[in-house]
Design goal:
With 158 residues, this protein is mainly alpha-helical. The protein contains five helices and no strands. It has one domain.
């Protein structure tokens, strides 16, 4: 019976393929791929830096609140729906509302933006027949708030 791929020793195959290549016998944790959540955080940070650079290049560095009003464009609505969908699916309506209140407190969004976003949330409850007063299944964590800041930056840059 011919050998199957599982019968081969990978170290031996690597040595045969490239005799000059040094191959470690064991892998260090540093050799393993990055945690997907860590990769996402780096991508979000990179996007925030890129958006800030774009604003700085036109002399419009953000002031607080970062989002004083929602842009009146279709592209902004798409971003709002995507953002709220993410928050509501993770944490439910109550926790999403609490997050919006928090974003007003830390001056990420203005009060009128919160009210506009709450109006969009009402649309979610009608379309998807959710109960807006029902507590969400999970609390939002730091990564979720960073993601929200990315969405706020996107909206502010529209």
């Amino acid at each position: 019976m011919p050998p199957t791929p599982g019968d081969y020793d990978l170290s031996e195959l690597r040595r045969l393929a490239d005799p000059n290549r040094e191959t470690p016998e064991t892998f260090d944790e540093a050799d393993l791929p990055a945690d997907p959540d860590e990769v996402l955080r780096h991508e979000q940070r990179d996007e925030l830096v890129r958006l800030q650079s774009q604003l700085a290049s036109v002399g419009a560095l953000p002031e607080r609140p970062y989002l004083a009003s929602l842009p009146d464009r279709y592209a902004a609505e798409v971003v709002v729906f995507e953002w709220l969908d993410l928050l509501i699916n993770k944490s439910g309506f109550e926790n999403t509302g609490n997050a919006l209140d928090y974003y007003v407190e830390v001056d990420w969004i203005a009060g009128p933006v919160r009210e506009d976003l709450r109006e969009y949330m009402r649309g979610f409850s009608e379309v998807e027949s959710f109960d807006p007063d029902k507590p969400g299944p999970a609390d939002l964590d730091v990564d979720d708030h960073v993601t929200s800041l990315v969405y706020i930056a996107r909206l502010a840059s529209v």
